[in-house]
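so my prof wants the structure for this chain in the tokens format not the other one, which i didnt know existed until like an hour ago. anyway here's the sequence
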Amino acid sequence: MPADVEPTVVETRYWHAIAGGRVQCDLCPRECRLHEGQRGLCFVRGCEDGRVKLFTWGRSSGFCVDPIEKKPLYHFLPGSSVLSFGTAGCNLACKFCQNWDMSKSREMDTLADAASPSRLTEAASRLGCASIAFTYNDPVIFHEYAIDVARECRSAGVRTVAVTAGYVSPEPRAEFFRHMDAANVDLKSFSDDFYRRVCGARLAPVLDTLRHVRHDTDTWLEITTLLIPGANDSDAEITALTGWIARELGSDVPLHFTAFHPDWKMPDRPPTPLATLARARRIAQAAGLRHVYTGNVRDPDGGTTRCPACGERLVERDGYRIGRYCVTDDGCCTGCGAVLAGVFDGPHGTWGPHRLPVRLGAPLPAPTASRSRHSGPA
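here's what i got, hopefully its the right format
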């Protein structure tokens, strides 16, 4: 795709024709079967001229510079800034969605900003961002656009991050994560019943994605589970979830337990208390997971990274602000020399908790000394 062209409709590869003049989208396990003119559940892919096309290439619901810890990623270029953006739509139907204004949008007006891969990469570099994050809604549904951006980023030494539910079919999954430097995958529950009733999806494909990213790619992986009171926060479910991660993925994969707040179609469910997150963290640690964090609450202990060998407090966080930092430039404990799992490249960044909305159609603000120093190819 030429760098200076910003189309909104592009051809896709993952589909095939079926009986009755319909086509089947093969991007995700939902396998939407579409007549001419119909859109899939995701909204951004649909049937036109007897083919499945992506209707939102180059379009975004907005751009913002965030701390990388907000994704959340705690072991990937700590303290750095990331240029975040999303589009519209989603291939899940989570009743608790906390970005529902974008992920559930069915209006093209939501996609008011536009940027080609080259413009996005130039913006990230100029703003001092170490990476670009595909976030706010699930990037697997704008598969072609995300990969085009990732290719451009890699050629310029900017990394890419996918924040995803991991609900994607095997062939497009392999292509997608081959281009990603890091991913945070939402493991929404360890119950297939929960996935079916609350998310309109299934658990098994998500577990397959986690295995694939961990064992078959070079993509750095972290996991997030949003704990909803009375829905997925029982001791039995947390024990099963964390035991599976320890067995199937290994003890060094960071796990983030985050707090729910009432939203979308679950406004009557209470917020998650800190005590629930702390209990889940203890269960995960007992299962052998070395890096377990709490989020969406203020909990300095739950945000602290410890050395897996000597127990030293290596990274102390207060929200998105890094305090004590005892990690060498190449990711080792300064005390005992043990290697800390993750991606580290020089001193930690100093972006902190700042949030900077950006309009790429307007002149970009000049970088400041507080912006991340991280750069370079993965």
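also thought this was worth mentioning. The longest helix spans residues 143-156.
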